[in-house]
């Protein structure tokens, strides 16, 4: 059972992703000294660099590339409302869309969690026959998630990197941003489909 997954990033990071031909984990990006427009909470990213993984390839959560099982994530809402580490809003945030089978075909060291991976009581699972245990339709994709905020933040994580060619679509909020993405994709040998999907935003 393959499940769609979504990684959010700022459009300012797209040229680097194309140039590197992959999405790097935070730990690897720091090791390589690559510049990055951070849109998340810095303290959570720092904490994930120290939080152990007991399945897949082990290591720390920050050594894995994170995906949600839905667009319009809880973190995107935080970005939309603006926070102390990023006040740029959601307009120029991209959804990089793939699916679990495609990522796993190029990276065997993956796992998923039943809730936000940063929580101490999140279950780390690398038995992908169990992925059907996630209630993707009724909870994770639910538009109004106040009653199950943690479950909506279940994560799919891939060790160290995800190849650029594993991204099959890029979702954007407006045609203006789509036009910018198309310009950046002129530099790429592989060009995912670009879709204007305002329903994926707040």
From TrEMBL:
Keyword Transferase: yes
Reaction equations catalysed: a thymidine in DNA + NAD(+) = an N-(ADP-alpha-D-ribosyl)-thymidine in DNA + nicotinamide + H(+)
Keyword Electron transport part of the UniProt annotation: no
GO molecular-function terms, A-Z: DNA binding; glycosyltransferase activity; nucleotidyltransferase activity
InterPro entries the UniProt entry points to: DarT (IPR029494)
Ranges for domain DarT: 3-202
Pfam families, A to Z: DarT (PF14487)
Residue numbers binding NAD(+): 7-9, 48
Domain of life: Bacteria
Active site: 48 (proton acceptor), 155
Protein family per UniProt: Belongs to the DarT ADP-ribosyltransferase family.
Descriptive protein name: Uncharacterized protein DUF4433
